[in-house]
Amino acid sequence: MTNDTQAANNAGKNDWLQSYWMPFTPNKAFKANPRINERAEGFYYHTSDGRKILDSFSGLWCCNLGHRHPKISEAMKAQIDELDYSNAFNFGHPKVFEMANVISAQFPGDLDHVFFVNSGSEAADTALKIAIAYQRLKGEGTRTRLIGRVNGYHGVGFGGISVGGMVNNRKFFGSLLPGVDHMTFPYDMGSQAFTRGEADIDVEPFMKELEGVIALHDASTIAAVIVEPFAGSGGVFVPPKNYMKRLREVTKKHGILLIVDEVISGFGRMGAPNAATYFGVEPDIVTIAKGINNGAVPMGAAIVRKEIYDTFMEAMPVGVEFFHGYTYSGHPLAAAAALATQQIFAEEGVYDHAKEMSAYFEEAAHSLKGEPHVIDIRNIGLAAGVTVETRAGAPGARGTDVFLKTYENDVAIRANGDNLAIAPILTMGKAEIDQTIEALRKGLRAAA
């Protein structure tokens, strides 16, 4: 019986679920057979039907320290009793300034200034606005074009889906932002399948293509290029060796800002504070969210180089320098959770642990090669993607079935079409990695 048929047969069974329009979810199928998390602790969700589910996707790439870490919970409880909200426009509170200093210290070069938002989507749109406004303030107002990448994901704001390259996120919403172009996705399954880490291939064809796009529009019209260090939402696709360094060189040569979307890769996922450090590049703007405060309260940020910040400050000697912001920017509760999270990262050696576990995780993930319908496996740090062969006339159906069968084995991963993704909590050990892979192995065999 298909998921849709089952959903139809169970119509009306769970009426109390109907009012909530769920995001990025097949609502009919879910509400016929819901998966309800009632509480969580450590590595596990506890569900309404009495099950204990290993969270092998770190929430949604965000709970890097697991669930209900006592130090984060304590910080949030203390904060709500002290200051529940502070207007971010013309007012401040101590923790948000402290948090900006803690964050900027982790990023390379002079990425010294942090603009807080509430999500990765808002961080991406904020970064794009900063890039275009910066070029104008520099006297290069013709630089308004933006370049994204095929299969890229930068949230769901109009800016993010315009520079993003995931078809279903774009096709329903009209013409999107004008003046946007896209680079080729730097991955070919035919030649790179089952690559461990970064593929050792020539990246110059990708740079030549980018040079062609720049020549087509002329560099004087292009404000920024935006990319993910690895494509997480699309299914964990990893760039080839030297790709990020060459991308930085090409953009810098043409006076084009490089925006690196670290919403997924930031805060330990790669066994480093961030992907910019991991790849040895210094972007102009970085976007972050998710792991910044362990997903406890919505929070994100755009981090900019000192020269960009100074340009805004000097161009507007009085009054508001950047006409942008959100009601909940730098919310006290989010900042308290973030400070506690960052302290745990530093004091408990979380990044080092993630780095140490990466090799074991790689071996475990690639042990799935040869399982039914597995046509590709990719990994970097504590992230892995597994692609299953698409069923004829039913794209995404096999991936969904594997996801559901894996869940039946008490492990939560993620499926995006026929691409499956695993993102262990960064403090997990070998036992949890083994449990994850074996549950997925059973899921692959059961869904074949």
Automatic annotation (TrEMBL):
<dbReference type="Pfam" id="PF00202">
    <property type="entry name" value="Aminotran_3"/>
</dbReference>
<dbReference type="InterPro" id="IPR015424">
    <property type="entry name" value="PyrdxlP-dep_Trfase"/>
</dbReference>
<dbReference type="InterPro" id="IPR015421">
    <property type="entry name" value="PyrdxlP-dep_Trfase_major"/>
</dbReference>
<dbReference type="InterPro" id="IPR049704">
    <property type="entry name" value="Aminotrans_3_PPA_site"/>
</dbReference>
<protein>
    <submittedName>
        <fullName>Aminotransferase class III-fold pyridoxal phosphate-dependent enzyme</fullName>
    </submittedName>
</protein>
<dbReference type="InterPro" id="IPR005814">
    <property type="entry name" value="Aminotrans_3"/>
</dbReference>
<comment type="similarity">
    <text>Belongs to the class-III pyridoxal-phosphate-dependent aminotransferase family.</text>
</comment>
<dbReference type="GO" id="GO:0008483">
    <property type="term" value="F:transaminase activity"/>
</dbReference>
<keyword id="KW-0808">Transferase</keyword>
<dbReference type="InterPro" id="IPR015422">
    <property type="entry name" value="PyrdxlP-dep_Trfase_small"/>
</dbReference>
<keyword id="KW-0032">Aminotransferase</keyword>
<keyword id="KW-0663">Pyridoxal phosphate</keyword>
